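Morning. Coffee machine broken again, so started the prediction first thing and wrote up yesterday's gels while waiting. Chain of 287 residues, entered below exactly as on the submission form.
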Amino acid sequence: MARVLDTRRSRLLLAALVLGHLIVISQQVDGGGGVSLLKRAVFSVLSPLQLGVASALRGLAAAWTGYVDLRGVRAENARLAQRLSDAERERELDRQRAAEAARLREMLDLKSVLPMDTVAAEVVARDGLPWFRTLTLDKGRSAGIPLNAAVLSPTGVLGRVVALGPRAARVQLLLDRDSGVGALIERTRVTGIVSGPTGLAETGKTDLIMKYVSALADVAAGDRVLTSGLDRIYPKGLVIGRVRSVGSPAGLFKEVLVAPSARFDAVEAVLVVRDGPEAPVITESVR
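Came back before lunch.
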């Protein structure tokens, strides 16, 4: 057994000596280009491994750089999205301010030409019907608004105050079939009464009806219709609308359809006449 171990050791020692001798020789032998044979052999063996390690390191570096860049892009996208949202919100506010300024200019222009005492009010509620017949204003008795006060928009007559509270007023629109305003044709001075049509909620029509117009009266489509002042509620000379059509006479009278100039469904601010004539009416109060 000891002899076998000695033999193996001798062989290993011999192999080591031979290998060492070969290494020394290869270090001294020129492999070409001034590079020793040993260095060339080591380079041939290790270069693929070195290239693999370098490629892996480059891949890791690229992945890390891409991750960092992606986080940066996401953060930048979030900042840009927030800036866009802020810009859109500011643009909407600017649009609302411009619309409010335009409404105020219209109200001021109307107020400046009216020879009567008026107060501006905002519409805060409408009734729930598909076609609005009443409005609620944010001004009431404390602002000096009387019952039956005429309510105007920059484009025409809206209606009258039918109920009052200290800080609110309910307005009956001309669209209401129970409303009524003394009217006249500007061109021929023909008089009548304008009110809302019957069955408005079912038909969807927004034309007003001018009643009690003589069958012989001179009325034509396009004629401007003004308040006559004969009802002692609406001051004389306010615009109601224009004649849309004239019906055939039925007995003593003919029915005239009037396209209102006021935009009942879009009004947001109004003028309420405080010094007009007042007629007593029994109505509910608005709190």
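The longest helix spans residues 37-113. Going to sketch it on the whiteboard this afternoon.
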